[in-house]
Amino acid sequence: MAEIITDTSQKELKKHGSDEFPLLVSYEKLSGYKSGSFLWHWHPEIEITLVLEGQILYKVHQCTYHMNTGDILLGNANVLHAGFMEDMKDGKYVSITFLPKIIYGAYESVLRRKYVEPFLQNFSIPAIYIDHSQPWHKLFADYVKEIIRLYEEKKEFYELDITGTLQKLWRCMLQNLPGDLPYTEHSKLERNRMREIMDYLEHNYMNKIQMKDIAEEIHLCESECSRLFKRYMNVSLFTFLQEYRVERSLEFLLSSGDSIMEVALKSGFTDSNYYAKVFSRIKGCSPQKYRKQNVTVHSVNNNSKTSI
């Protein structure tokens, strides 16, 4: 089973590509992860996700995207993101993950200053969603598929060809962004505090958590801690914690013979009835039904690629 390994700030530790060419194309599926989802994390790379089959409920900061087959999402660098099954159905996808410097080269480059850095630093743009509702979406999708093809074939000069295609994709995106897009820049301190909160939840979700515990961890008063989280995630901290506990419970639900009570307690719920109530609200069915419908597909590890 796949698992996203992160450090104490929720930064993913997986290397995407090499130092010589920091770009990686990889085929994934939600059922390949322990909990049937990839949980909250971030990385300095930009990530482009193309759904090959099924659906993905993709969350980036406070935004939620219901992605269908053929949809594409470009996630900005350094943003918290996660992906979940929709209606208990698996989602297969291919991701292109790359450091922005592939586009601009030297740090002093005008390409970085004019075309890349303003996008990376604008927190009103956590992601760009390509759902084929706009004429330019087809061209963007063609560039994505071309990059995947070039990466897989790895013919002579493929690094140059990928870089050139990536620059065309970037230009296509920039020239079609709304002209009145607001510019929002969060401080580095706020971003770090959010990552500290996420790290605390990851390591303590199975225990009783109070707002004062989190506030003390990041050295803020309780009210400001609550406002900070709501500002970033567009949901209260404890609503998020309920959802996070349910997602973490899926690993125990699908990969063990634990009773529902044992799963509930391992996931931070005080009793099985409350767990079942929250689970049903979030997943639309009981834990027992979810286990019955998903344990088979979760245990099958099919590494075959789906054609783009």
TrEMBL record:
Keywords: DNA-binding, Transcription, Transcription regulation. Residues 195-293 form the HTH araC/xylS-type domain. The keyword Transcription applies. SUPFAM superfamilies: Homeodomain-like, Regulatory protein AraC. GO terms for molecular function: DNA-binding transcription factor activity; sequence-specific DNA binding. PROSITE patterns: HTH_ARAC_FAMILY_1, HTH_ARAC_FAMILY_2. This is Helix-turn-helix domain-containing protein.
